[in-house]
Amino acid sequence: MSHIDLGLYLIRKRQQELEVVEISDWTTTDVPACGMSWENAYKVYAPCMLTKYKHWVALMIDLVKCEIKVYDSMVSLIPDEILKEDLAPLSITIPNLLNTMDFYEESFYANDCSIDWWCLWPIKRVDVPQQSNQGDCGMFVLKYIELLSAEIPLATCTSQNMPFFRYMMIKLVLGISNLKLMQLSNIKVMK
Q1: Residue 29 burial (10 A CB sphere; 0-12, 13-18, 19+)
Q2: Contact present, 137 and 77 (Cβ < 8 Å)
Q3: d(Cα 106, Cα 103) in Å, to the nearest integer?
Q4: For 77-107, what is each residue's pLDDT tens digit?
Q5: For residues 167 and 182, what is the distance between their CA atoms, to the nearest angstrom?
Q6: pTM: predicted TM-score of the whole model, two decimal places
Q7: Key word Cytoplasm present in the record (predicted)?
Q8: Nearest of 152, 97, 94, 154 to residue 123 by alpha carbon
């Protein structure tokens, strides 16, 4: 399991355990215990590796508006036209996949679709907080998906907060207490 898969699994699991957060608007392809079925979803959040650039972006696939939104933490890396060209196969594949599984006949949101599902879906880059170094794109993707799926604004998703988010992810992955983690890593926490 890759670090992105593990991070997304832990986000889903934590959101399921929190009563305040309702995860009724996103899905995964394998429907683990903390996921949901396709028929009940209207948004799909997915990490996407642009291998040519070795760069992660987050995708929000809106099954009602029939569009794909790209959350890119480093827009200066890939020009808009190239990004859309690289993701263009999704704008064909996703509608065909949904048609194959009769999504628009069986889905609760079928009548709300804003365009004809068989048209090419537009790909739109969203204005989001940007990373200030070369290595944070994976963590930004995890935080974008976590916050968007919980309908929380992305304002806290900044380069300054990435060390804290990484710390919390390590804690979550290892399942250990703050004190034990500080002892293991010699991290000094300010009071």
Answers
A1: exposed
A2: no
A3: 5
A4: 999 999 999 999 999 999 888 888 877 776 6
A5: 10
A6: 0.75
A7: no
A8: 94
Q: What helix, strand, coil percent values describe the chain, rounded to 5? A: 45, 15, 40
3 state DSSP class of 101:
coil
Q: Is the pLDDT of residue 170 over 70?
A: yes
* Helices then strands, each counted (H, E), the chain: 6, 4
Which two tokens mark 183?
A: 């002892």
| Residue-wise DSSP of 51-89 | TTTTEEEEEEEETTTTEEEEE-S-TTTS-HHHHHHHHHH
Q: How many CA atoms lie within 13 A of 184 on its CB side?
A: 10
In 116-188, where do the E strands start and end? 123-126
Name the pairing type of β-strands 67-71 and 55-62: antiparallel
- φ, ψ (nearest 5 deg) of residue 62: -90, 110
Indicate the range of 1-5, 65-69, 122-126, 160-164 predicted with least confidence. Answer: 1-5
Tokens read off for 18: 């929190």
Buried/exposed code over 94-128 (b: 16+ C-beta within 10 A; e: otherwise): bbeebeeeebbeebebbeebeeebeeebebebeeb
Contact 102, 45 (CB under 8 A): no
